[in-house]
Amino acid sequence: MNILTMLMNNWIGHSLTVLYPARPAVTKGYRGLVIFDETRCSGCSMCAFHCTSRAIEFRGAKTEYKWSYDPGQCTYCGRCADGCESHALSMEQACPPIYLTSGALKCSYTIQRKPPAPPPAAAPEPSGNPQQTDSTAGDAQ
Ligand code: SF4
Ligand code: SF4
Fold first, then answer.
1. What whole-number percentage of the chain has pLDDT above 90?
2. Nearest residue to 96 via CA among 84, 107, 109, 82
3. How much distance in Å is there from the Cα of 115 to the middle of ligand 1?
4. What b/e sequence results for 4-41 when a residue is b if at least 16 CB atoms lie within 10 Å of its CB, and e otherwise?
5. Is the CB of residue 67 less than 8 Å from the CB of residue 108?
6. pTM summary value
7. Distance (Å, rounded) from C-alpha 14 to C-alpha 11?
8. Sign of CA dihedral 89, 95, 97, 100
9. Least confident piece of the model among 11-25, 55-69, 108-122
10. 28-114 topology per CATH
């Protein structure tokens, strides 16, 4: 749509432009900013592996790890969210906000690694053959 058509449509019908800082409406399924839920993250780092744009950075250590996201490098492809088996990532269904300073929307989290789950308790030893116990009891009489 060229500018003259847009101005004509604005003049005849409803406004097709929005005032800053309003975000334009989006359709269903639109992929906006990546939303990170740190409570669900397992620290597997697969999202950083999937992100070829390097918008997600993952730095792991033994006791904690740092997860960071820079929307300035994001192409909104959705591969990180699709590949996160812990469902810790989702895509905002809204047009990304306008920002004036480089890195203004960048966010990072430092997360303590969860302790490994305790090993499952060993199954109790069988207490002997019940039939044998019965015969033993019979012998005693
Ligand atoms: S956000 Fe998902 S894919 Fe990324 S480290 Fe956390 S659990 Fe793994
Ligand atoms: S949406 Fe795509 S480019 Fe953006 S962080 Fe996820 S994988 Fe990287």
1. 56
2. 107
3. 17
4. eeeeeeeeeeeeeeeeeeeeeeeeeeebbbbebeeeeb
5. yes
6. 0.75
7. 7
8. positive
9. 11-25
10. Alpha-Beta Plaits (3.30.70)
Tens of pLDDT, residues 99-114: 888 889 999 999 999 8
Is the distance from the beta carbon of residue 95 to the nearest atom of ligand 1 less than 6 Å? no
Residue nearest to atom 6 of ligand 2 (CA): 80
The pLDDT score that the predictor gives to residue 93 is 95
Write the burial class of residue 83 (CB in 10 Å: 0-12 exposed, 13-18 middle, 19+ buried). Answer: middle
Mean pLDDT, the chain, rounded, equals 87
How confident is the model at residue 139, as a pLDDT?
47
